[in-house]
Amino acid sequence: MYVPPENFARVCEGIYRSSFPRIENFEFLKSLGLRSILCLIPEEYPIENSKFNESNGIRFYQIGLSGNKEPFVKIKPELVTEAIKILISPENQPVLLHCNRGKHRTGCIVGCIRKLQKWSHSMIFDEYRKFAYPKERPLDQQFIEMYNGHEVEDFAVQNRLLPIQW
């Protein structure tokens, strides 16, 4: 039986999101045919996850984001841009994006992707709240609203990724 990680969802063609994958999720992840996993936590990746990635030919990327927690910890926009570039690169897809719970850090990245997809703020925040419930963070929503995706758009033009198949 396949068991998806918590907060698993398809973001768009080739991009998935979830909480931290556990051993019981590995068979499900195999069924996705992943080429890459992008982890947003700064801690060392567990050995069983690393072995799973290696044995299934999955590239592993790690960008250690700090969550938006008041008053002094904030997500760095340049790290979000780096993450989105990894996610939209066809050679990395299908790709799974995850943090610990698949809520806040993952929600910020997905929210910024939605912004690049030209979603309205109300739709972006509805999706963010659905996954972050019951602990939505206003600073996450503010970050998404203020995020400037011009560098990602330039990257897409330079690498002939346009039109991005959302």
UniProtKB/TrEMBL annotation:
Gene3D superfamilies registered for this protein in UniProt: Protein tyrosine phosphatase superfamily
EC number(s) on file: 3.6.1.52
GO MF entries: inositol diphosphate tetrakisphosphate diphosphatase activity; phosphatase activity
Signal peptide: none
GO cellular component, one term: cytoplasm
PROSITE patterns: TYR_PHOSPHATASE_1, TYR_PHOSPHATASE_DUAL
Cited InterPro entries: PFA-DSPs, Prot-tyrosine_phosphatase-like, Siw14-like, Tyr_Pase_AS, TYR_PHOSPHATASE_DUAL_dom
Catalyzed reactions per annotation: 1,5-bis(diphospho)-1D-myo-inositol 2,3,4,6-tetrakisphosphate + H2O = 1-diphospho-1D-myo-inositol 2,3,4,5,6-pentakisphosphate + phosphate + 2 H(+); 5-diphospho-1D-myo-inositol 1,2,3,4,6-pentakisphosphate + H2O = 1D-myo-inositol hexakisphosphate + phosphate + H(+); 3,5-bis(diphospho)-1D-myo-inositol 1,2,4,6-tetrakisphosphate + H2O = 3-diphospho-1D-myo-inositol 1,2,4,5,6-pentakisphosphate + phosphate + 2 H(+); 6-diphospho-1D-myo-inositol pentakisphosphate + H2O = 1D-myo-inositol hexakisphosphate + phosphate + H(+)
Domain Tyrosine-protein phosphatase: residue ranges: 7-156
UniProt keyword terms in alphabetical order: Hydrolase
Pfam families: Y_phosphatase2
CDD domains (alphabetical): PFA-DSP_Siw14
Family that this chain belongs to: Belongs to the protein-tyrosine phosphatase family. Atypical dual-specificity phosphatase Siw14-like subfamily.
Listed name of the protein: diphosphoinositol-polyphosphate diphosphatase
